[in-house]
């Protein structure tokens, strides 16, 4: 039992960057709503209604990384992951806005075109997510690597990748 608790804790620690990026994205969307002059309730519903699903999916991305199902730093795996995840998060956001506004749930009138458009946007989101993930994870994972073997594995992968890059650069110069 203690081993599974440790494993869950390790996965939770490793998933921190993805969750933070998702919450941050919701915060940015809420900030844009506030700057646009939308009511406080709408701003709050946007922040939480988009941020929480994206945080869950962001953490899920990290769990898939930790389990070896997604390649570290890969654009294509990130894009394929976010292709269904981003439209689903946006759909949940729309449902939260409807419920929070006291309306009955009015899924977008043209549901398939809405989902298709969100799928197109998901590629840009995946690239931005991956870039932010690389920035945040490379600061976070070294901090927890001493007690988290998954983070230690990632730090080792990044270290080997950096050494290989330096070796290639040195070979081209010399």
Question: How would you describe the overall organization of this protein?
Answer:
The structure is a single chain. 83% of the residues lie in helices and 0% in strands. It has helices at 2-14, 16-35, 40-66, 75-100, 111-144, 149-173. The protein starts with a helix and ends with a helix. The protein is elongated and about 65 Å long. The protein is built from six helices and no strands. By secondary structure, it is mainly alpha-helical.
Short structural description:
The chain is mainly alpha-helical and 174 residues long. The chain has 6 helices and no strands.
Show unreliable segments: none
Helix content: over 70%
Strand content: under 5%
- Which sheet architecture does the biggest sheet show? none
Order of helices and strands: HHHHHH
Count the strands?
0
Number of helices: 6
- Rg, please? 19 Å
- The chain-level mean pLDDT equals 90
Distance between the termini: 55 Å
Structural shape? elongated
Q: Briefly note the structural class of the backbone.
A: mainly alpha
Features:
174 residues, mainly alpha, 6 helices
Strands, helices and their partners?
Blueprint: H1 2-14, H2 16-35, H3 40-66, H4 75-100, H5 111-144, H6 149-173
Helix pairs in contact: 2-3, 2-5, 3-4, 4-5, 5-6
């Amino acid at each position: 039992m203690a081993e599974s608790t440790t494993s869950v804790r390790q996965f939770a620690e490793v998933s921190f960057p993805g969750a933070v990026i998702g919450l941050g994205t919701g915060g940015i969307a809420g900030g844009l709503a506030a700057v646009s002059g939308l009511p406080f309730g709408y701003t709050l519903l946007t922040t939480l209604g988009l941020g929480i699903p994206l945080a869950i999916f962001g953490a899920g991305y990290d769990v898939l990384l930790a389990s070896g199902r997604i390649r570290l730093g890969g654009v294509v795996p990130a894009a394929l992951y976010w292709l269904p995840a981003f439209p689903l998060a946006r759909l949940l956001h729309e449902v939260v806005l409807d419920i929070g506004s006291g309306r009955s749930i009015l899924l977008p009138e043209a549901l398939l075109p809405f989902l298709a458009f969100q799928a197109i946007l998901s590629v840009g989101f995946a690239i931005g997510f991956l870039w932010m993930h690389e920035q945040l994870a490379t600061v976070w994972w070294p901090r927890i690597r001493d007690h988290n073997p998954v983070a230690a594995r990632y730090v080792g992968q990044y270290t080997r990748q950096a050494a290989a890059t330096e070796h290639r650069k040195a070979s081209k110069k010399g």
